[in-house]
Amino acid sequence: MSRQSSPIVLDPAAGDADAEHRLLRAQGPAARIDILGVPAWSVTDPFLLKELLTSPDVSKDGRRHWPGFDAALESWPLALWVAATNMFTAYGGDHRRLRRIIAPAFSARRITALRPVVEEIATRLADDLEATPAGAVADLRERYAVPLPIAVIGRLMGVPAERRAEFRALVDGVFDTLLSPEEAASNTQALYAMLDELIAAKRADPGDDLASALITMRDEDGGSALAEEELRDTLLLMINAGYETTVNLIDQAVTTLLIRPEQLVHVRAGRAGWADVVEETLRHEPPVKHLPLRFAVRDIPLPDGRTIREGEAILASYAAANRHPDWHGSPDDFDVTRLTKDHLAFGHGIHFCLGAALARLEGEIALRVLLDRFPDAELAGDEQGLRPLPSLISNGHRALPVRLRP
């Protein structure tokens, strides 16, 4: 393998993500990259990535461990990804404290209790799709994959139904890596303004929702457990993570099954279940391609003799790692009968996604309801006609045109 001579500049529009991931893997366990002007290491070896994700030598706190933090706040379009004050960017004791506060909201009992809610929402959306005439094309991302997670997280967090479309547009902006620094900063400002309005409304009139519970806890203990900034950024994290990633999971699962109908035959014949489809989708097309950023607390030697220096940024390249040839046989094949579908779509270690069980529940129900209702659905056009989202983070399509009844 030739030594990498210059950083790989990641394509902010993700024009050909698979080719880019192959290029990154070809550089060894990690590759030097440029992510929207910021130098970093993209880690694509799944075994090294797991090691780093559980190492105290790797931090998510840019304020403490990244010399480039102040410059990023001024001019980096992804500044929000490192500047928010919540468990996503916390390190050590701060992370453990914040995670303990949030974890009960995603207990197995609470997720199970949400099943009828998700069933009701998916059924209602399928009912709406019934009005689509035979032969007509429906955009299933816009009419199914998007509204289902928005409705679920909206109910969970107490976001009023009439404000969910606004939240959706602003969250989309967080993942859009074609925005200029000025556009990204404006989007962040508008998103925080909406969160402040939500917090004020819940303080004035608390409801039976997670936002109200967090606000009440914070106010009653005087902020000793959760500061006001942490409260706001925790709500930001839960709304962002609870919406965008699940949309992409549903989008990619439906897309892949329609492109590869033999995989749906396995489900129909009982050789695989909807849970298998969800897991293979998470492995093959994870909702998040790259997750910025982590930082080296001290020098980290790599298996090939290179070194990630203290203070350097690290990018967890989940999509490239999931298809690493040393992890899975025929990694580029989508196979719902694959016995081992291990993946890093939800992260690994102490930062493993708290909402993973909810995302899996939504994915399984969404697929079953949709494809039981419309068993003859087919993609309108070919795979090449699908355009990726303009994001090196978010892994979905701009639209998912489908004929529900050919």
UniProtKB/TrEMBL annotation:
Keyword Oxidoreductase carried by entry: yes
SUPFAM superfamilies assigned: Cytochrome P450
The organism's place on the tree of life at top rank: Bacteria
Entries under Pfam families matching the protein: p450
Stretches of the chain forming a coiled coil according to its record: none
InterPro entries reported for this sequence: Cyt_P450, Cyt_P450_B, Cyt_P450_CS, Cyt_P450_sf
CDD domains hit by this protein: CYP107-like
Keywords, in A-Z order: Heme, Iron, Metal-binding, Monooxygenase, Oxidoreductase
Family: Belongs to the cytochrome P450 family.
Protein name (record): Cytochrome P450
Originating organism: Streptomyces halstedii
